[in-house]
Design brief:
The chain is mostly helical. The chain contains five helices and no strands. Helix 1 crosses helix 2 and helix 3 packs across helix 5.
């Protein structure tokens, strides 16, 4: 019997607010304070003309993080139970292969999926 691989990109409707707060947290705690989408050497590069076929690839920069809210979220994440904390850190900051993270935590991929959703619920309840 083949099992379906969990969709780690899906966010339950009741978790949208906490998901946005966790995305802000990711921008605060990522190396260098902001997640880099471009290698540092190319950040100031501006081409003379962008070919038509590349126009679809131009993306706006993410908004500047709210540092106070980000560090408050870091304290809340730090106080989660160990497996929930590691699942949330993996999902928002590290983002490697889910099978690898599941092996590290000695759990199945579906349990990792559940830990991410349960961690969001815990954080949402602590904010309320």
């Amino acid at each position: 019997m083949k099992r379906d691989f969990p969709d780690f990109h899906a966010v339950r409707s009741e978790h949208i607010g906490i998901h946005d707060a966790l995305l802000n947290w990711r921008r605060v705690v990522a190396v260098g304070g902001m997640a880099q989408h471009t290698m540092p050497i190319f950040q100031q590069y501006r081409p003379e003309e962008i070919p038509d076929w590349q126009l679809w690839a131009t993306v706006d920069k993410p908004p500047a993080p709210d540092l106070n809210a980000g560090w408050k979220m870091e304290r809340m994440v730090r106080n989660l139970p160990e497996k929930h904390r590691e699942a949330i850190r993996w999902h928002y900051v590290r983002r490697t292969d889910p099978r690898k993270q599941a092996r590290i935590l000695a759990i199945s991929v579906s349990v990792l999926h559940d830990l991410v959703h349960d961690g969001r619920s815990m954080l949402k309840n602590r904010l309320a």
